[in-house]
Each structure stands twice: as structure tokens, then as C-alpha cells.
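== Sequence and structure of one protein ==
=== Format: two labelled lines per protein ===
==== Data for this protein ====
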Amino acid sequence: MPEMIPLGWFHTILGIGAVLSGFYTLINHKVISLAQPSGKLYVLLTLIVAGTALGIYNQGGFGIAHNLAVLTLVALAGGVLMEKTKLFGGFSQYCQALGYSSTLLFHMIPAITDFLRRLPVGDPFIDTLEDPLLRQFHLAFLVIFVVGFVAQVLWLRKQPQA
């Protein structure tokens, strides 16, 4: 695995902040929204992290991490659009939840991948992207995302309509 460049360190540190603020927001508010300071922080950090991911080419070119960064930017834009315009009326809140929550999944996939490929230093947990351990983590994150999104939908359905 190549050494981390300064942009990689910046990206990683802000990524940790994004993930922490995202989980904090979900735990305390049930959904991510720009109406909450922690939600604003999450959206801003996620925007910066996805943008900086597009500038990191330590694997030799445009790869899966870059694709996830693009998906993150699209999902983030969709979440903001749904929150600000209510384009789909009452259904917009569910689209907003899906957009913002999916960005958290998109953070976790490259985070665990890099973690397992870099640590412990000198003898990382995995050597290849096809390693079963990595696939198990990705599957677990997907299951957690689906369960979390269903919980958000159920919570949103119980809320009084604005």
C-alpha cells in the first residue's frame, strides 16, 4: 500500500469527523438534516471528503473509491435538493433520509477497506480487495444501512406532517 500523501491525511481526518458527526446526528435526531448544527457539519465535511477523494490517485487511476466519491456527491446533492425544495412533497423527507444516510454507507466502505489494507503497519489484515474479511465488513455495513434506513422511515411516518 502506498504511503499516505498530505491530501490523504487531510481527507482521512475530515472523514473521521464526518462519520462521527453523521452517527451523532442519527443517534440524537434520527435523521440527518441541515436544520441541525451536527447535520450541517456532516454535510459540509462529507462534501469536502468526497471532493478530496477525487484528488487521491494512490492506486494508479480512477477507481472504485472515486466512483464512491461521485455517488456520495450525487446522494448529498439529492438529499439537499429534497430537503430544500420538497420536490416530491411529503415523500421528499424519505428521499432526503435515503440520500444523506447512503452517504454514511459510502464513507464506511472505503474507510474499512483502507483500515484493513494499512493496519497493522507491516502486516495488514488483508492483502487484496477480494478478501472474505473485507467482503463480510461490506455486507455488514450494507445490512446496517438497510436496517437503519427502515428505522428512519418508520420514525418519519410517526412524525406529524408539517
